[in-house]
Write a structure and sequence with these properties.
Layout lengths: L1 E3 L4 H11 L7 E4 L5 E4 L6 E5 L5 H15 L4 E6 L18 H10 L4 E5 L14 E4 L16 E4 L5 H11 L3 E4 L1 E4 L5 E4 L9 E9 L3 H9 L5 E9 L5 H8 L3 E5 L7 E3 L2 H7 L1
Parallel strand pairs: 1-4, 4-5, 5-6, 6-7, 8-9, 8-12, 12-13, 13-14, 14-15
Antiparallel strand pairs: 2-3, 10-11
Helix pairs in contact: 1-7, 5-6
Bound molecules: ribose-5-phosphate.
The site of ribose-5-phosphate (R5P) has 12 residues, from strand 12 and helix 5.
Length: 277
C-alpha cells in the first residue's frame, strides 16, 4: 500500500501505477492553530510512505504518516523523493546543527528503511539509524529534452559533473563541462566560465537542485552566444522568484522531476523508485 504525503500525491500515484499497488486515500487536516493531522485508512502488510520534505510542515506530516502507518502495517518503508535540510550536512559555523542528521534521526524512528533520490551529498544516507539507500534519477532528466544541436551538457560546479555526464549518456551523445562556482552568500554566487565553447550550440545546464535560481541564472549569463539554453534539475524547488530569474537570464525551457511537484516537473522519478524497492 502506498501512503502519500499531501505534497507528493503525483509521484505517489505514479509509483502506485508502476508497482500495481493500492494508493491509500489519506485524509489531511489542518487545525485553526496550524497543527496538522492525517488519517491513514488502511496500510496493508507493507506500507510505503512517499513524502518529500520540502517544507517544515511536510517534515511533521511525514512523521505523522509513519506513526499512523506503523500501527497498521508489519513493515514501513519511507521514500523521501526530496530530502529537505540535506544541504546542511555539516556544521559550517560553530554552534550550528547538522540539520540533515537531526532530520534523519527523527525519520528513522518510524520506519524500517529509507530510500531517497539524489541527496545533496551521498553521506547523508549514513545519518539514518535504519538502512538508507539513495537512488540516482539523473538519467531521467534527458527524457523531456528536445532534439539538440551540438549539445553541451554543463554543470554549474565540478561536484555536479556526474549529473551532467548521466544526462549526456541518457541523451545519447554530446560534450560535458563544468563551471567553477564561488558562493559568497545564499544569493550571491560567482561563476567562472568553463573551457567549452558555447557559440551556436544548444546548452543544457544541470544541477541537483534549483533553489533560489541564483546559481543557474548566473551560469546562463556567462554563456557566450548559445543557440538555446535548457535548464534541468532533479529537485525543482524554485523558491520565491527563481523561475522569473531564469526567464530573465534567457532560458528557453526549465525541466525537473516530480520529487518536488512544480509546473516544470516534466518527468517522474517513480520508475527509478519502483526499480529500487
Ligand atoms: C549546491 O551546491 C547545489 O548543488 C545547488 O547548486 C544549489 O543549492 C542551488 O541553489 P540556488 O538555486 O539557490 O543557487
Amino acid at each position: 500500500m502506498i501512503i502519500p504525503g499531501s505534497d507528493s500525491q503525483e509521484v505517489a500515484a505514479s509509483l502506485a501505477a508502476e508497482l500495481d499497488e493500492s494508493l491509500a486515500a489519506v485524509e489531511y487536516e489542518r487545525f485553526a492553530d496550524g497543527e496538522r493531522l492525517v488519517r491513514v485508512p488502511e496500510a496493508g502488510d507493507r506500507a510505503i510512505v512517499v513524502a518529500s520534505t520540502a517544507s517544515d510542515a511536510a517534515h511533521v506530516e511525514l512523521l505523522q504518516l509513519q506513526d499512523a502507518a506503523s500501527a497498521r502495517a508489519d513493515e514501513v518503508v519511507t521514500v523521501i523523493p526530496y530530502m529537505g535540510y540535506a544541504r546542511q550536512d555539516k556544521a559550517f559555523e560553530p554552534g550550528e546543527p547538522i540539520s540533515a542528521r537531526a532530520m534523519a534521526r527523527a525519520i528513522s524512528t518510524g520506519t524500517d528503511r529509507v530510500l531517497t533520490i539524489n541527496p545533496h551529498e551521498e553521506a547523508v544516507t549514513g545519518f539514518f539509524d535504519v538502512p538508507c539507500s539513495s537512488i540516482d534519477a539523473a538519467g531521467r532528466l534527458a527524457e523531456p529534452l528536445p532534439e539538440l544541436s551540438e549539445p553541451l551538457f554543463l554543470s554549474p560546479d565540478s561536484g555536479a559533473i556526474e549529473l551532467a555526464e548521466a544526462v549526456r549518456d541518457a541523451y545519447g551523445g554530446g560534450e560535458t563541462d563544468y563551471f567553477e562556482k564561488i558562493r559568497h552568500s545564499d544569493t550571491d554566487v560567482e561563476i567562472q566560465p568553463s573551457d567549452a565553447t558555447t557559440a551556436g550550440r544548444d546548452v543544457v545546464l544541470i544541477d541537483d537542485i534549483i533553489a533560489t535560481g541564483s546559481t543557474m541564472s548566473t551560469a546562463i549569463e556567462q554563456l557566450s552566444d548559445p543557440a538555446r539554453v535548457f535548464v534541468t534539475c532533479v529537485h525543482p524547488m524554485l523558491a520565491a522568484n527563481a523561475r522569473t530569474k531564469l526567464a530573465n537570464a534567457g532560458v528557453d525551457a526549465v525541466y525537473g522531476t516530480d520529487t518536488i511537484e512544480r509546473a516544470v516537473s516534466a518527468v517522474s522519478v517513480a520508475p527509478s523508485i519502483a526499480d529500487a524497492l
